[in-house]
Each structure stands twice: as structure tokens, then as C-alpha cells.
Design a protein that fits this description.
CATH class of the largest domain in chain B: Alpha Beta
Largest sheet of chain A: 8 strands, mixed
CATH superfamily of chain A: Thiamin diphosphate (ThDP)-binding fold, Pyr/PP domains
Structural class of chain A: alpha/beta
Helix content of chain B: 40-55%
Number of helices of chain B: 21
Strand content of chain B: 15-25%
Order of helices and strands of chain A: HEEHEHHEEEHEHEHEHEH
Number of helices of chain A: 9
CATH class of chain A: Alpha Beta
CATH architecture of chain A: 3-Layer(aba) Sandwich
Distance between the termini of chain A: 59 Å
Largest sheet of chain B: 8 strands, mixed
Number of strands of chain B: 21
CATH topology of the largest domain in chain B: Pyruvate-ferredoxin Oxidoreductase, domain 3
Helix content of chain A: 25-40%
Number of strands of chain A: 10
Mean pLDDT of chain B: 95
Oligomer: heterodimer
Strand order of the largest sheet of chain A: 2-1-3-4-8-7-10-9
CATH topology of chain A: Rossmann fold
Number of domains of chain B: 4
Radius of gyration of chain B: 26 Å
Strand order of the largest sheet of chain B: 6-5-4-1-3-2-14-7
Shape of chain A: globular
CATH superfamily of the largest domain in chain B: Pyruvate-ferredoxin oxidoreductase, PFOR, domain III
Strand content of chain A: 15-25%
Structural class of chain B: alpha/beta
Low-confidence stretches of chain A: none
CATH architecture of the largest domain in chain B: 3-Layer(aba) Sandwich
Amino acid sequence: MVEFQDYQSPVRPTWCEGCGDYGIWNALKFALSELDLAPHEVLMVTGIGCGSKTPDYTHVNGLHTLHGRSLPAATGARLANHGMKVLCVHGDGDGYGMGLGHMMHAARRNMDITDVVQNNRVYGLTKGQYSPTSPEGFVTKTSPQGAIDHPVNPWALALAAGATFIGRGFPADLRHLVEVLKKAILHRGYALVDVLQPCVSFNRGYAYEYYQPRVYKVDEEPGYDTTDRAGAWQRAQEWGDRIPIGILYQVEGTPTYEDQVAVLRGGPLVDQDFREWTDDDFEKLTAEFV
Amino acid sequence: MPSMEMAFKIGGEAGQGVESSGAGFAKALVRAGWHVFGMQDYYSRIRGGHNFYQIRVSDRPVYAHVESVDLLLALTQEAVDRHCGEIVEGGGVICEECLEVDCASLDQRDVSYFPVPLTDIAQEHGGAEVMRNTAALGAAAGLVHFPFEVMVSVIEDNFAKKGAEAVQVNLRVAESAYKYAREQFADKFPYRLGRVDGAPPRMILNGNQALSLGALLGGCKFVAGYPMTPATSILQWMATHGERYGVVVKHTEDEIAAILMIIGAAHVGARAMAPTSGGGFSLMNEGLGLAGITETPIVIVEAQRPGPATGLATRTEQGDLLFVLHASQGEFPRIVLSPGSIEECFEAGWRAFNLAEKYQCPVIVLSDNFLANSVRSIEVGALDFAGVQIDRGQLLTKEELDALEGEYLRYAYMESGVSPRALPGHPRAVFQATGNEHTPDGHLTEEIETRRLQVEKRLKKLDSAREEIRGPVLYGPKKAEVTLVGWGSTYGPLREAVDMLNAEGGRANMLHIRDVWPFPAKAMREALSKARRKVMVEGNATGQMAHLLEAYTGVKLDHHVRRYDGRPLSPQYILERLEEVHHG
């Protein structure tokens, strides 16, 4: 049995006291250990930002890449070793700003990757600039008159791109976040988990006190059907007095990208030995050019 | 001098099948035993414009194209206008009567005019005007008494995919044009290309194909890329062959994704490659540095074309040398190879992976449009398929990891700079790779001493790699009056320029640089110490290799021949510029 402790690292986080990243970090460790996945069976690919340092504080295979670029790195890793559970963990600037294009492509390909976005709606590590999910009028060091940009809607974008699993969690409800993460990790295909991450240093207006009274569990609403795409689209627009968390949408049985790559039917690429070349191979390769 | 040599040029619009028919004819010539060099020249558009395909055929090995034309096949007025002036004395032009040809001017130069009703033949026997290219080739073959059965075999192969009907109509068109030209004009044209008796079997391929073959045999398991001329055909070749030979090929959303995907794939243990050109490589810059600091073995093929920005999208230049050497912020080791021939492209294709894994760093194979897309005939067996070796360097096996005692240190300090590498997936070697500076166990750090040691550790790998970086190839006599120095795709044109100079009674040789970085300074210094007049020849405006060479060897070059108009260096171009140097 894999224990929560197996993911513990002697390296302590450098996050601020009260940061939502602690909750997400613990939820990840709970989810992975409760699914009996051992640290060596998991690759956690991250971008750049406070939350992207998660593998530094976790006993797990980590690939800490570039800002916005964790999804293509995770895609390459999955294609080369689909025996490994691959998670992306990154912030909203990383995932919805610089990495938004990659998210669209990972979703439409249905790569079997769990994409966890620590969405604090601000740039924390660079000390307070507005992010792609910051609300209009949000005053920061790069928007002193208030942000003019409309915020992106991660759920709607993921749905439009063809994501087969779309969820959201709130670290103050740790058990719920763990359960959403577990379902996302078990989901075969691209799974977005948008996490409402309070940033206590640079975004106090959208921290625990803001979200606590507003969040509700969408998939526990009577009559809500997580397989209904049109209903999910409606619900994805909801943001204000009520903010939905939980599983917005999940459709099972869609083949993953990896499922459809013929070469991978022979097992993970890295486990396939180098080809023993035969004279017949050489003749075939030569014949093309003769 | 050769007993038999001639150059064909097929000119027409994009969409007229200039390239495909040219390549088909080149293959037919090779099957008949001739040595061939083929080169395409085209505009960046799908229809219209002016394209040509040039085939140089000889009874001795050829390594470059020539500027002159013996037989022009002009499918359009523009082809007539542009290329008639290039036809040599005694040569000829095949075109339709409806095109305007300045016969008086041709007569003056003893150039024959062969009007052939290509459209009529194509329509009558094939039912479609588009088969004019087949008609033109049939006529050319008839004119030089080329064995028609060899044409048949190539047409059968080339059109097989389109079905038996396509094969039959093309054969009828070719045969009709062949007979027409042979009956009407063959006695007026002295060139003859029959079968070459006793010629060994040969293959004909371009640099991209040779490189792809090398990579495939060298264990490349993963290719990610975005189509960009002139590297696209590597991605396509791998996509076509991937399923049969176990290579996963991913056409990505952009080149940033391409390099990150190969980093992800290489990190978990697959030999991974991304083919691109300068524009795509520009997008890969940040990723290159990530591979550098995470010590991930990746291979990038940078097939150069003229920049900046889109530049001349379908043409050639060697303008990215200093760029690839310095790309990405910070200092980290990389290895750069610059193959110059089909054989060297093949070797670079597999050697790059060995170097990448041995030194755990990015390896860039620097090619260019001229090398990537020009075809050359070589003997079957000239590419040593069975001789390809796979050396994964200090890659820890499962057994070694099972026996590991204590904590695994991915970035342990080693004398060689190369730390034993584990792949993620083993319980004893759970580790993090990061683009931040890190401790030997892969954790983020900003400590002064660790930073210094990690920088030094990484750079030491370059000293280790330098031991197996190869010096220049010398061609020609050891002692010479003039030494022509080149790199990459200048190999062929320079080699022929040397032969031509020596045939005229000169004493010339060539130094060809095939491994660029770490710079083979010692070997170059030694090689140049024996040289008298040193001329650097390269395909750029600013003399990028000259700069490296002078900076790292302290040797002063005497003259420079440069070309940066998007067209490849030819032996004639080089000799003309040398003349200018001589008299200027």
C-alpha cells in the first residue's frame, strides 16, 4: 500500500503562510497515495510559478520545465512512456496565459494527462500583476487603472476544445478536492482540474472569505448531468454569487491519443527494445531509393 | 576530363510536376548506370511561379550542380526566357512551337531548337494537358537514345500509387514523345545516354532522406516537428516509416511544443529528434536551454534557409551558424555537427544520438536547403547500415538501479561532467529535473558554491566531448598553393572546384569542417599551418565560420568567397570569385 508519507520530501515549501498551494499539494499527495500510485510511477510536470515548484517539495518524479510549457513536455513523456501516470501542475499565468494554446491542443487530442491549474487569478512569484483570470477592473502593478482585458473562462475553453473531463476544486474543502483529483487521475483522457487557489499575499480580495460562501458542488445539484455538454456549457458561464466546483463534465470511453498511436500498441515506447535490423529491413529501406 | 557528361534543366510552373518528373528522370538515369546530381529550385507557392529541376549526369561521380545547361526542357515561356541563355554550344532546347524562341540567337551559339507538340501528345495519348511533363521527359529520353525500358520501370514505380490506368496513360504519353523526338531530331543532337555497362547498383537520395535513415537506424524512437521548409521532408519520411519501424511521430502545434515534446520523451528515455529550420529553431530557443540545464539528450536538425524572418523560404543559406552556437540564454554545452554530403548526413543522423546521450546535452545537426533537398547517386552499400552503433553513454540499467545504495544523485559532480543517468520509473531513483539551478539531487538552489560547481560540471562535458570531435576532412594534395576551407553543404561544390583547379594545372586542396562545436581548434590550427593561400568559402554574407576559425585558431584567412543570394554555391561560382580575387 502506498502511504501519504511516501510522497513526503525533506524539502519544505517556500510558499507564504496561508497559500492555497499547501492545500493543493496535500490534496495531490492524498489523491495519488489513495489511488495506490507510488512516487516512481508518477511524473509530475510543472511550469514556472510558485505552485510549479510542487515537485521540489514532493517525493515524486518531477520535470520542472518552462513557463507555459508543461503540457507539451508532458505530452512527449506520455507518448514515450504511457505506462507512467503523468500530471501537469501549474498556475493560471502558466496554464491559461502562456500555455493556453497548448491546453487547447492537449484537450482536443485527449492526451491522458491530468492538468491541475492552481488558479489564484494573479501573478504571485513576480509579486502582483494581473493574470488571464483576473477580473475586469482588477488593479495591480501592471494594471494600475484596472485591467481592461476580459478574464478567460477555463471551463468554457476546455469544453470548446473537447476536453473529456472538466472539474474544479477549492483547497479549503480538502476532501472534496482530493476526490475531484482522484476522479481526474483515474479518467482516461485529458482532465482539467481548475483549482480556486487563494493567494494571501497579492490577491486578498479573492481569497478564502470570497470563495467560501459562494462555492457549491455542481455535480451534487439535483438533476445535473455531467455528460450533458450543452448543460455544462451553461453552467460554465456561472461565476459570481454562486461559483460551481466539482465535476462539470465527464465523458468516458473516448479513445485517448495514446490509444490511437499504432506503435504504442506494442507497449510503452521506452520498454520497446531497439529494433534488431535484418537484411530484409535493409533491402526494403534501400529499395526506396534505387 | 569526363568522357560523357550532360546537364538537363526542366523548367515550368509550380503545379506542372517539374520536381516529381525531374526526380523520376534522375532515378531512371541512375538505374541505367549513370552518376547523377539533382537539384530543385522553386518558389514558395503551390501554383504558378517559375520552378526548375536540374539533373547533372555523368560517367564519373558528381558532387554538385553546374551553372550551364546542355538540354533545356521548357514547359513555359518564362522557362524559355530565363534559361535559353544558359545552354552551352552544341546543346538544345525542347519546347512547344507556341512558345517564342529567339532562334537566331540560338543558331549563333549552335544551340538546337527541338519543337515538340507536348500538349497534343499529352492530350491525344493521355487525355490531359497535365501530362506535358511526362511528354517532355519522353522527348528528352528519345533525343539522347536513353533506353526506353528504363523509363518504363520508373514510370511504373512512380505512378503505381495512382493506379494501373495512370501508369498506362503516362507510358503512352512518354512513348509517343520518345518516338517523336528520336525520329525527328536525334540525328541532330550528339549527346547519347545509353546504358552504362558494368555499373554497380546505385541509390539516389537527398540529405534529408540520408539523415532520416541514419536517425532511424540509430534508434530514434520519437520525432516531433512542425512543417517548415526545408526540414519538412524529415518529418514526413519519419511519419511514413514510423509505424513499420516503431517510431512515434508527432506533428505539433508549433516548434515550442516540438522541442518540449522531445525533451519530455528524451527525459523518460526515448531517443528523440525535432527537425526544423531557422524560424522554428528561433521558437525552440528557450527549450534548448531547458535541455541544457536539465541535461536532457535531444537532437535537433536545423536545415537552414535564408532569413531573417521568412527570408527566402524555399532557398538556401548558411546564415545560422553563430545563431545555433549561441542560441538560448546562459552558458551550457551543446554539440553542433555540419554534415556536407549524403554519407555524412547519414552518419550525423545516428551519431547525433550517441553524442547527445553520452554527453547528456542537446545536439544540433546543421544542414541547409541545398544539402537537404539535392539528390546524389551513391553505390548501394555506401551507407553502412549494418555499421550503425548505438551508445547510450552512462545510462543506468534497471539492475544497476536495483543495486543502488543511498540516494540517487541525478546531477552528481563527476570528473567528466557526465553524471550517471536514470530514467524516471525506478523506485530507487525518484528525482526531479528542473530548469532552475539545482543541487546534485535535483532540488532548487541559489547557493553560491552549488551554482558554481554545477556550471562547471556542465561545461566540463564540452571538454570531454572535444576528445571525439573530428577535425576537418582534407581533399586533394597535402601540399597546395591554395586551400579552400568550407563547412556543411559547401563540401560538394568545393570538392569539384578543387578538381577543376588541379585539372587546369593548379595545386589546390580543400578543408571541410564537419564537426563544428566544440570547435576543433587544434585540428584546424594544425591543418591550416600547412596551408599557403587560405580561402574561406561559405554561404552567408558576414563570414560566420571565418569568424570562428580566426577567433579559435588565430590563423588569418587570406580571402573570402561568400554567397547570400539564396542560391547554392556551385563550382563555377567559386572559381569565378577566385579569379576575381586573383586579379582584383
